[in-house]
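Fold these two proteins, one after the other.
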Amino acid sequence: YGLYDYLRNSIQQLELAQRKAALIVPAFETLHYRLTFPRSKAEVLSMLDMGSLYTFRYHVWPKGHAPTDYAKWRTATVPYRVAWQPDFEPYVVVRRDCPKYDQRFVGFGWNKVSHIMELDAQEYELLVLPNAFMIHMPHAPSFDISKFRLSAGYRGCLQTLREEFHQDLSRRYGAAALKYLTAERSL
Protein backbone atom coordinates (compact mmCIF):
# COMPACT_ATOMS: atom_id res chain seq x y z
CA TYR A 1 0.00 0.00 0.00
CA GLY A 2 1.32 3.42 -0.93
CA LEU A 3 4.43 2.09 -2.68
CA TYR A 4 3.87 4.10 -5.87
CA ASP A 5 3.61 7.40 -3.99
CA TYR A 6 6.56 6.49 -1.77
CA LEU A 7 8.68 5.72 -4.84
CA ARG A 8 7.71 8.98 -6.55
CA ASN A 9 8.57 10.97 -3.41
CA SER A 10 11.88 9.11 -3.00
CA ILE A 11 12.80 9.79 -6.62
CA GLN A 12 12.23 13.51 -6.07
CA GLN A 13 13.91 13.70 -2.66
CA LEU A 14 16.96 11.76 -3.84
CA GLU A 15 17.12 13.81 -7.03
CA LEU A 16 17.33 10.70 -9.17
CA ALA A 17 16.90 12.68 -12.37
CA GLN A 18 20.45 13.99 -11.79
CA ARG A 19 22.21 10.84 -10.62
CA LYS A 20 22.80 7.25 -11.53
CA ALA A 21 21.06 5.25 -8.85
CA ALA A 22 18.97 2.12 -8.56
CA LEU A 23 16.40 2.15 -5.78
CA ILE A 24 16.12 -1.29 -4.22
CA VAL A 25 12.71 -2.43 -3.02
CA PRO A 26 13.35 -5.13 -0.39
CA ALA A 27 11.56 -8.35 -1.23
CA PHE A 28 9.89 -10.76 1.13
CA GLU A 29 7.86 -13.90 0.61
CA THR A 30 5.19 -15.94 2.26
CA LEU A 31 4.47 -19.62 2.00
CA HIS A 32 0.76 -18.95 2.61
CA TYR A 33 -1.62 -18.67 -0.33
CA ARG A 34 -3.75 -16.27 1.65
CA LEU A 35 -2.18 -13.37 3.41
CA THR A 36 -3.39 -10.15 4.93
CA PHE A 37 -1.03 -7.81 3.13
CA PRO A 38 0.92 -5.62 5.57
CA ARG A 39 0.17 -1.91 5.40
CA SER A 40 3.42 -0.73 6.97
CA LYS A 41 7.01 -1.62 7.68
CA ALA A 42 6.03 -2.21 11.32
CA GLU A 43 3.56 -4.88 10.16
CA VAL A 44 6.22 -6.47 7.92
CA LEU A 45 8.61 -6.63 10.88
CA SER A 46 5.93 -8.19 13.05
CA MET A 47 5.13 -10.78 10.37
CA LEU A 48 8.85 -11.56 9.98
CA ASP A 49 9.16 -12.07 13.72
CA MET A 50 6.07 -14.31 13.78
CA GLY A 51 7.34 -16.39 10.84
CA SER A 52 4.56 -15.61 8.38
CA LEU A 53 7.01 -13.70 6.14
CA TYR A 54 10.59 -14.46 5.18
CA THR A 55 13.28 -12.57 3.34
CA PHE A 56 12.90 -13.42 -0.33
CA ARG A 57 14.29 -16.82 -1.39
CA TYR A 58 16.41 -17.08 1.79
CA HIS A 59 15.93 -20.87 1.84
CA VAL A 60 16.58 -21.40 -1.88
CA TRP A 61 18.90 -18.66 -3.15
CA PRO A 62 20.08 -16.38 -0.31
CA LYS A 63 22.78 -14.77 -2.48
CA GLY A 64 20.13 -13.21 -4.67
CA HIS A 65 18.91 -10.76 -2.05
CA ALA A 66 21.31 -10.97 0.92
CA PRO A 67 23.25 -7.82 -0.13
CA THR A 68 20.05 -5.85 0.59
CA ASP A 69 21.11 -6.23 4.24
CA TYR A 70 17.75 -6.99 5.79
CA ALA A 71 19.15 -6.57 9.31
CA LYS A 72 19.99 -2.96 8.47
CA TRP A 73 16.62 -2.46 6.74
CA ARG A 74 14.81 -3.39 9.97
CA THR A 75 16.00 -0.19 11.68
CA ALA A 76 16.80 2.06 8.71
CA THR A 77 15.03 5.39 8.47
CA VAL A 78 16.92 6.75 5.46
CA PRO A 79 18.03 5.10 2.21
CA TYR A 80 21.34 3.27 2.53
CA ARG A 81 23.87 2.21 -0.02
CA VAL A 82 24.83 -1.41 -0.57
CA ALA A 83 27.62 -2.91 -2.62
CA TRP A 84 27.25 -5.25 -5.57
CA GLN A 85 27.93 -8.90 -4.77
CA PRO A 86 27.88 -11.95 -7.04
CA ASP A 87 24.39 -13.18 -7.96
CA PHE A 88 22.69 -10.09 -6.50
CA GLU A 89 19.27 -9.74 -8.14
CA PRO A 90 17.15 -7.22 -6.26
CA TYR A 91 14.01 -5.59 -7.57
CA VAL A 92 14.92 -2.05 -8.54
CA VAL A 93 13.48 1.20 -9.76
CA VAL A 94 15.74 3.01 -12.22
CA ARG A 95 15.54 5.85 -14.71
CA ARG A 96 14.32 5.01 -18.20
CA ASP A 97 17.74 5.71 -19.68
CA CYS A 98 19.43 2.98 -17.63
CA PRO A 99 21.00 -0.04 -19.33
CA LYS A 100 18.35 -2.38 -20.66
CA TYR A 101 18.04 -6.02 -19.68
CA ASP A 102 20.29 -8.20 -21.78
CA GLN A 103 18.00 -9.98 -24.23
CA ARG A 104 20.11 -13.13 -24.14
CA PHE A 105 18.62 -13.93 -20.76
CA VAL A 106 15.03 -14.88 -21.47
CA GLY A 107 13.15 -17.57 -19.64
CA PHE A 108 14.75 -18.52 -16.34
CA GLY A 109 18.17 -17.43 -15.17
CA TRP A 110 20.39 -14.42 -14.97
CA ASN A 111 18.15 -11.65 -16.29
CA LYS A 112 18.18 -9.60 -13.07
CA VAL A 113 21.72 -10.69 -12.10
CA SER A 114 23.20 -9.47 -15.40
CA HIS A 115 21.19 -6.25 -15.22
CA ILE A 116 22.45 -5.36 -11.73
CA MET A 117 25.98 -6.28 -12.81
CA GLU A 118 25.72 -3.85 -15.73
CA LEU A 119 24.33 -1.12 -13.48
CA ASP A 120 27.25 -1.64 -11.11
CA ALA A 121 29.72 -1.56 -14.01
CA GLN A 122 28.26 1.81 -14.97
CA GLU A 123 28.75 2.96 -11.36
CA TYR A 124 25.12 3.19 -10.36
CA GLU A 125 24.53 3.64 -6.65
CA LEU A 126 22.51 0.78 -5.20
CA LEU A 127 20.21 2.38 -2.62
CA VAL A 128 17.88 0.39 -0.39
CA LEU A 129 14.66 2.21 0.46
CA PRO A 130 13.92 2.00 4.20
CA ASN A 131 10.12 1.99 3.95
CA ALA A 132 9.54 0.09 0.74
CA PHE A 133 8.77 -3.60 0.47
CA MET A 134 7.20 -6.14 -1.80
CA ILE A 135 5.88 -9.60 -1.08
CA HIS A 136 6.18 -12.58 -3.38
CA MET A 137 3.18 -14.87 -3.17
CA PRO A 138 3.50 -18.64 -3.74
CA HIS A 139 2.65 -20.03 -7.15
CA ALA A 140 3.32 -23.07 -9.28
CA PRO A 141 6.82 -23.24 -10.82
CA SER A 142 7.12 -21.61 -14.23
CA PHE A 143 7.69 -23.66 -17.33
CA ASP A 144 11.15 -22.11 -17.72
CA ILE A 145 12.37 -22.94 -14.22
CA SER A 146 11.19 -26.50 -14.77
CA LYS A 147 13.28 -26.63 -17.96
CA PHE A 148 16.27 -25.22 -16.07
CA ARG A 149 15.94 -27.82 -13.32
CA LEU A 150 15.42 -30.77 -15.65
CA SER A 151 17.65 -30.01 -18.64
CA ALA A 152 21.43 -30.14 -18.56
CA GLY A 153 21.29 -28.61 -22.05
CA TYR A 154 19.37 -25.59 -20.78
CA ARG A 155 21.84 -25.08 -17.93
CA GLY A 156 24.76 -25.47 -20.36
CA CYS A 157 23.31 -22.87 -22.70
CA LEU A 158 22.79 -20.49 -19.78
CA GLN A 159 26.44 -20.98 -18.76
CA THR A 160 27.58 -20.17 -22.31
CA LEU A 161 25.45 -17.00 -22.30
CA ARG A 162 26.93 -15.99 -18.94
CA GLU A 163 30.45 -16.40 -20.32
CA GLU A 164 29.56 -14.32 -23.39
CA PHE A 165 28.08 -11.66 -21.12
CA HIS A 166 31.30 -11.51 -19.06
CA GLN A 167 33.35 -11.14 -22.26
CA ASP A 168 31.10 -8.31 -23.41
CA LEU A 169 31.46 -6.56 -20.05
CA SER A 170 35.24 -6.86 -20.32
CA ARG A 171 35.19 -5.31 -23.79
CA ARG A 172 32.94 -2.43 -22.67
CA TYR A 173 34.41 -1.68 -19.24
CA GLY A 174 37.96 -3.01 -19.43
CA ALA A 175 39.82 -3.88 -16.26
CA ALA A 176 36.93 -2.59 -14.11
CA ALA A 177 34.89 -5.63 -15.23
CA LEU A 178 37.45 -8.12 -13.95
CA LYS A 179 35.79 -8.17 -10.53
CA TYR A 180 32.73 -9.81 -12.08
CA LEU A 181 34.73 -12.55 -13.73
CA THR A 182 36.82 -13.09 -10.58
CA ALA A 183 33.65 -13.31 -8.49
CA GLU A 184 32.18 -15.85 -10.90
CA ARG A 185 35.26 -18.05 -10.83
CA SER A 186 35.44 -18.05 -7.03
CA LEU A 187 31.88 -19.39 -6.67
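Now the second one:
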Amino acid sequence: PVPTISWRKVNGHNPSKARLRKSQAVLEIPNVQLEDAGMYECKAENSRGRNVFRGQLQVYTYPHWVEKLNDTQLDSGDQLQWECKATGKPRPTYRWLKNGVPLWPQSRIEMVNGVLMIHSVNLSDAGMYQCLAENKYGTIYASAELKILASAPTFPLNQMRKTIIITKGQEVVIECKPQASPKPTITWKKGDKALRESKR
Protein backbone atom coordinates (compact mmCIF):
# COMPACT_ATOMS: atom_id res chain seq x y z
CA PRO A 1 0.00 0.00 0.00
CA VAL A 2 0.99 3.65 -0.44
CA PRO A 3 3.12 4.59 2.57
CA THR A 4 2.52 7.49 4.93
CA ILE A 5 5.49 9.83 5.14
CA SER A 6 6.69 11.94 8.06
CA TRP A 7 9.65 14.26 8.54
CA ARG A 8 11.58 15.28 11.63
CA LYS A 9 14.75 17.12 12.47
CA VAL A 10 16.99 14.80 14.48
CA ASN A 11 18.08 16.42 17.77
CA GLY A 12 15.84 19.44 17.29
CA HIS A 13 12.50 20.79 16.11
CA ASN A 14 11.41 21.15 12.50
CA PRO A 15 11.74 24.80 11.39
CA SER A 16 8.38 26.54 11.98
CA LYS A 17 8.46 27.90 8.41
CA ALA A 18 8.92 24.39 6.89
CA ARG A 19 6.25 23.21 4.43
CA LEU A 20 5.28 19.71 3.26
CA ARG A 21 4.13 19.04 -0.30
CA LYS A 22 3.18 16.10 -2.52
CA SER A 23 1.53 14.00 0.20
CA GLN A 24 4.32 15.01 2.61
CA ALA A 25 6.97 13.51 0.32
CA VAL A 26 8.69 16.88 -0.12
CA LEU A 27 10.00 19.01 2.76
CA GLU A 28 10.53 22.67 1.83
CA ILE A 29 12.40 25.19 4.02
CA PRO A 30 12.15 28.73 2.63
CA ASN A 31 14.79 31.39 3.44
CA VAL A 32 17.23 28.92 4.99
CA GLN A 33 19.19 30.19 8.03
CA LEU A 34 22.21 28.82 9.90
CA GLU A 35 20.01 27.39 12.66
CA ASP A 36 18.17 25.23 10.09
CA ALA A 37 21.30 23.12 9.56
CA GLY A 38 21.28 19.59 10.96
CA MET A 39 20.24 16.01 10.32
CA TYR A 40 16.75 15.46 8.87
CA GLU A 41 14.93 12.16 8.84
CA CYS A 42 12.21 11.01 6.42
CA LYS A 43 10.17 8.03 7.58
CA ALA A 44 7.90 6.04 5.24
CA GLU A 45 5.68 3.26 6.59
CA ASN A 46 2.76 1.08 5.52
CA SER A 47 1.22 -2.16 6.75
CA ARG A 48 4.19 -4.16 5.42
CA GLY A 49 6.84 -2.22 7.33
CA ARG A 50 8.80 1.02 7.37
CA ASN A 51 11.99 2.57 6.07
CA VAL A 52 13.96 5.62 7.16
CA PHE A 53 16.28 7.92 5.24
CA ARG A 54 18.50 10.51 6.89
CA GLY A 55 20.19 13.43 5.21
CA GLN A 56 22.46 16.17 6.52
CA LEU A 57 21.58 19.79 5.69
CA GLN A 58 24.63 22.05 5.80
CA VAL A 59 24.14 25.81 5.54
CA TYR A 60 26.91 28.11 4.29
CA THR A 61 26.89 31.89 4.50
CA TYR A 62 28.64 34.80 2.84
CA PRO A 63 30.91 36.75 5.23
CA HIS A 64 29.16 39.56 7.10
CA TRP A 65 30.76 42.34 9.18
CA VAL A 66 30.29 42.35 12.94
CA GLU A 67 32.95 45.00 13.61
CA LYS A 68 34.47 47.39 11.06
CA LEU A 69 37.44 49.78 11.09
CA ASN A 70 37.35 53.46 11.99
CA ASP A 71 39.66 56.21 10.72
CA THR A 72 42.33 56.80 13.37
CA GLN A 73 44.79 59.56 14.31
CA LEU A 74 47.79 58.65 16.45
CA ASP A 75 50.83 60.42 17.80
CA SER A 76 54.14 59.21 16.47
CA GLY A 77 55.34 56.46 18.86
CA ASP A 78 51.83 55.30 19.85
CA GLN A 79 50.52 51.77 19.25
CA LEU A 80 47.82 51.01 16.69
CA GLN A 81 45.32 48.22 17.29
CA TRP A 82 42.57 47.64 14.74
CA GLU A 83 40.16 44.70 14.82
CA CYS A 84 38.08 43.30 11.97
CA LYS A 85 35.31 40.88 12.91
CA ALA A 86 33.13 39.00 10.46
CA THR A 87 30.76 36.04 10.68
CA GLY A 88 30.26 33.42 8.02
CA LYS A 89 30.34 29.70 7.38
CA PRO A 90 32.96 28.47 6.79
CA ARG A 91 34.54 30.90 9.27
CA PRO A 92 36.16 33.78 7.35
CA THR A 93 39.92 34.29 7.19
CA TYR A 94 41.44 37.78 7.15
CA ARG A 95 43.98 39.63 5.04
CA TRP A 96 45.26 43.20 5.28
CA LEU A 97 46.24 45.69 2.58
CA LYS A 98 47.99 49.04 2.91
CA ASN A 99 47.37 51.45 0.05
CA GLY A 100 46.16 48.47 -2.01
CA VAL A 101 49.31 46.38 -1.42
CA PRO A 102 49.29 43.21 0.76
CA LEU A 103 50.60 43.83 4.29
CA TRP A 104 52.81 41.18 5.90
CA PRO A 105 54.01 40.67 9.50
CA GLN A 106 57.25 42.53 10.25
CA SER A 107 59.24 43.48 13.31
CA ARG A 108 56.65 46.09 14.42
CA ILE A 109 53.59 44.64 12.64
CA GLU A 110 51.47 41.75 13.96
CA MET A 111 48.35 40.24 12.37
CA VAL A 112 46.36 37.59 14.28
CA ASN A 113 42.72 36.55 13.67
CA GLY A 114 41.61 39.85 12.20
CA VAL A 115 43.60 42.01 14.65
CA LEU A 116 46.28 44.32 13.24
CA MET A 117 48.84 45.75 15.68
CA ILE A 118 51.59 48.21 14.77
CA HIS A 119 53.99 49.04 17.58
CA SER A 120 55.52 52.51 17.86
CA VAL A 121 53.94 54.01 14.73
CA ASN A 122 55.81 56.56 12.64
CA LEU A 123 55.06 58.67 9.57
CA SER A 124 55.82 55.73 7.23
CA ASP A 125 52.80 53.88 8.68
CA ALA A 126 50.31 56.55 7.58
CA GLY A 127 47.99 55.54 4.76
CA MET A 128 44.78 53.79 3.73
CA TYR A 129 44.30 50.30 5.16
CA GLN A 130 41.86 47.58 4.09
CA CYS A 131 40.79 44.46 5.93
CA LEU A 132 39.46 41.58 3.80
CA ALA A 133 37.30 38.85 5.30
CA GLU A 134 36.79 35.88 2.99
CA ASN A 135 35.49 32.36 2.77
CA LYS A 136 34.86 30.22 -0.31
CA TYR A 137 31.54 32.00 -0.93
CA GLY A 138 32.82 35.55 -1.08
CA THR A 139 34.99 38.42 0.13
CA ILE A 140 34.03 41.64 1.93
CA TYR A 141 36.18 44.74 2.49
CA ALA A 142 36.47 47.35 5.25
CA SER A 143 38.66 50.46 4.89
CA ALA A 144 40.10 53.09 7.23
CA GLU A 145 42.76 55.77 7.13
CA LEU A 146 45.63 56.01 9.61
CA LYS A 147 47.01 59.51 10.18
CA ILE A 148 50.21 60.01 12.15
CA LEU A 149 50.69 63.30 13.99
CA ALA A 150 54.34 64.34 14.21
CA SER A 151 55.53 67.87 14.94
CA ALA A 152 58.41 69.43 16.82
CA PRO A 153 57.46 71.35 19.98
CA THR A 154 56.19 74.88 19.32
CA PHE A 155 54.96 77.57 21.68
CA PRO A 156 51.90 79.39 20.32
CA LEU A 157 52.07 83.17 20.64
CA ASN A 158 51.44 84.60 24.11
CA GLN A 159 51.54 81.11 25.65
CA MET A 160 54.11 82.18 28.24
CA ARG A 161 54.32 85.71 29.56
CA LYS A 162 57.74 87.29 29.16
CA THR A 163 57.61 88.99 32.55
CA ILE A 164 55.76 88.00 35.70
CA ILE A 165 55.66 90.47 38.59
CA ILE A 166 54.75 89.01 41.96
CA THR A 167 54.90 90.08 45.60
CA LYS A 168 57.55 88.40 47.72
CA GLY A 169 56.11 85.49 49.73
CA GLN A 170 53.27 84.74 47.30
CA GLU A 171 53.01 81.67 45.11
CA VAL A 172 53.71 81.84 41.40
CA VAL A 173 52.58 79.33 38.76
CA ILE A 174 54.32 79.32 35.38
CA GLU A 175 52.80 76.96 32.80
CA CYS A 176 54.71 75.40 29.95
CA LYS A 177 52.28 74.13 27.31
CA PRO A 178 53.99 73.39 24.02
CA GLN A 179 52.15 71.84 21.07
CA ALA A 180 53.99 68.70 19.97
CA SER A 181 53.52 65.17 18.75
CA PRO A 182 54.56 62.82 20.22
CA LYS A 183 54.25 64.25 23.75
CA PRO A 184 57.50 66.05 24.58
CA THR A 185 59.61 65.79 27.71
CA ILE A 186 59.84 69.09 29.55
CA THR A 187 62.75 70.48 31.56
CA TRP A 188 63.09 73.78 33.43
CA LYS A 189 66.13 76.02 33.86
CA LYS A 190 66.79 79.17 35.83
CA GLY A 191 69.35 80.98 33.76
CA ASP A 192 71.73 78.23 32.64
CA LYS A 193 71.14 75.99 35.64
CA ALA A 194 68.67 73.13 35.66
CA LEU A 195 65.93 73.53 38.27
CA ARG A 196 65.47 70.75 40.80
CA GLU A 197 62.40 70.10 42.90
CA SER A 198 62.55 71.23 46.51
CA LYS A 199 60.09 71.87 49.33
CA ARG A 200 59.09 75.09 47.57
